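Quick start: what a row looks like.
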Amino acid sequence: MSNFSDLGLSSEILKALPELGIDTPTQIQQEAIPILLASQNDFIGLAQTGTGKTAAFGLPIIDLVDHDWKATQAIVLAPTRELVQQITDQLQQFSKYYKKLNVVAVYGGASITGQMKDLKKSCQIVVATPGRCIDLIGRKALKLEDISHVILDEADEMLNMGFKEELNKILAFTPKEKHTWLFSATMPKAIKNIVHEYMNDPKEVTVSAGVKVNVNIEHKYVLLKASDKTEAIERIMDTHSDFYGIIFCRTKMDTVSLSDELNKDGYSADALNGDLTQKQRDHVMKKFKAMKLRVLIATDVAARGIDVNNVTHVIHHRLPDEIEFYTHRSGRTARAGKTGVSLILATKGDLKKIKFLEQRLQIGFEKDVLPSMTNIRSNKLEQWANSIEKVEVSNNISKEDWDKVQEIFADMDKDQLIQKLISRELKALSGSSETKNINVEEGRSERSQGNPNEQRFYINLGEMDGMDDEGLTKLITEVTGIKDSSITDMTVLNKCSYYTVPRDQASRISEALDGLDIDGREVRTNPDEDRPPSSGKKRGGDRRRGQSSGGGYGRGGSGRSSGRGGSSDRRSSGRNSSGGGSYGGSGSGGRKGGGRRRF
């Protein structure tokens, strides 16, 4: 099937879709809509964000509810306020020619009194966040006894965000005789439990992760050191005058620190993370949608449901653990038929992850090069000159003002004036790193690129010891006291790892780490150029092994804990032998993903 008219939808919906620029059904829509319209089975749809899931369940439910009956007959549950608003808006657009249908959104952070009033009116479909739904049920404002369909959208994210108890309560309030439709990017164990308890012989449709969800996205990466990422972002924004983007970070702290750095350097940015109140979130999103911010910096969970057109770039400050999150992130650009760029700020340790993304998602990544400051200056001067050329001459210049300026410039010819203007603009553009090349070449070590202020280290811990970038960084910072921002270019291999620190802090590394005992394994760390062969020869023989309890790491009996929850074997903690669907995970190299595909 290649047309919506082949799927069994009503003439009212078929009339609305072309007006919304929706012409051809996606794979999930082609396969799901006929099954859902038949309304004979429960349903599971496994598909990523950006595959058209909202229309896949939204179009059938609009046709299935009784528009002449005022009772609430369908409820759609979604994890975030933004996603609830997005779904509601789309359902209202789809049902444009159904005059009696009413769709109401209820979510936290807004007046519950106003939402209670909306629910008293004719309301066939409710779209809700789990928390607000429970609240309204408790106030007897939301009644579910006439529910014929329950739709769980982004079910995995609702569970990730801690809504398991709320979902169980809501489902328990609904009639036994109903249809449950579940849409999710993944199928972890907790969702399988919901399927087993609340669904009856569901039909399942899966859109594989390998499907290209948006061919209008250019997937690129630049190779650099971790310490140069902020400067790289600024160079990208300077190069693209129309830059309007979202930067994804792994942690809340990263969103705040990066936002502060960019604002300090004169770039309009703000952070969106789970620590913000709903009022603060709304304020940030209002500024971003109004394009008063050039860049929004967000965590994966905080960005759920963001639907903003005209985003030109998605930048991955660090790659996510899960494959699905890369698709979720990149899908924020190239919307409504536009093109966009998904750019990874990669260190050498990310290269194997990028290769794995290429293979699993069937997309090609182009290696890009960050512009030099010379090119940026030239580009900005050209933009500046073009902006002046386009200025309309004002009719409000008084003769007095004209004469004053003419007098000041009387002894200056045109070339001199232009030279002075350019010199002033160049001064504003100059910076301490204007000649620095921050691109890193593949296959070259940091030492060969000649940075005398940094020291590259080897350590005999790797993936086989349960280490990843974050875990190894935490170990080094807690033992040595070095700030995590000082540790750059982390490369974690199977049996060993490499990292770089400022040369003036290198002595602290050897003193604190070399000879440390971790779960009965003696740590060896050395400057890279002085790395000994893997002979197992003991270093630091006069040091005493510390017995660390609870799977912690310690030296001299200090018993410092690594917080691994009491596991005594780091190599078996959180790992499996098969790779567990990990990013690049085969053999013993994969971390257990709990159903998710991870790096």
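That is the whole record. DSSP finds 19 helices and 21 strands in the chain. The chain has three domains: 4-206, 217-367, 452-568.
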